[in-house]
Design a protein that fits this description.
Number of domains: 1
CATH architecture: Roll
Number of strands: 6
Shape: globular
Strand order of the largest sheet: 1-2-3-6-5-4
Radius of gyration: 15 Å
Order of helices and strands: HHEEEHEEHE
CATH topology: Pnp Oxidase, Chain A
Largest sheet: 6 strands, antiparallel, barrel
Strand content: 25-35%
């Protein structure tokens, strides 16, 4: 019975969130960094359509784990830039030339990051195009898969994004 109630509520919550992101992105981003991301990190590495970008800060050298919406495409992935191309994690990945992404229980080393402006959302499967359209997302980060990692843990001795 509990599962049925979540199925009914989830679309309304997602729609509300997407509308907030579209019209108040910086406010929502601050809230998500401190509250929502901590909850999302618990399932984002295993859930379909979600992933965790593991990247290193450009100046601090600190390792960060950022939950994202990630979609498989031929030879790589695209990540929806929900808060735009100026997000710190995007700058970190671009500066490093790649990152690790944990998705559906597997960790991938990604390389060759490029920002792609796609208002038609044609890089996404047709069934998924509505969500970014509602949220006003038109930019994506395109990365190619360099290799599949053996473990889901970050290795300090290997360069990452």
């Amino acid at each position: 019975m509990r599962r049925v109630s979540w199925i009914a509520v989830l679309p309304a919550v997602l729609l509300t969130f997407l509308l907030l992101v579209r019209f108040r992105p910086r406010s929502v981003a601050r809230f998500n960094r401190t509250v929502t991301n901590r909850l999302t990190l618990r399932f984002a590495g295993r859930a379909r359509g979600f992933g965790i970008v593991i990247h290193r800060g450009r100046t601090s050298g600190r390792v960060y784990r950022t939950p994202v919406n990630v979609f498989a495409v031929s030879g790589g992935v695209v990540i929806a830039l929900t808060y735009g191309r100026r997000s710190q994690w995007v700058a970190n990945v671009l500066a490093a030339g790649g990152c690790l992404v944990e998705t559906q229980g597997t960790t991938y080393r990604l390389a060759d990051p490029a920002i792609v402006h796609d208002p038609s959302h044609r890089r996404l499967p047709p069934v998924l195009r509505l969500i970014p359209r509602i949220g006003g997302v038109t930019d994506y980060l395109r990365l190619s898969i360099a290799e599949r990692e053996d473990t889901g843990t970050f290795r300090r001795d290997r360069q990452t994004g």
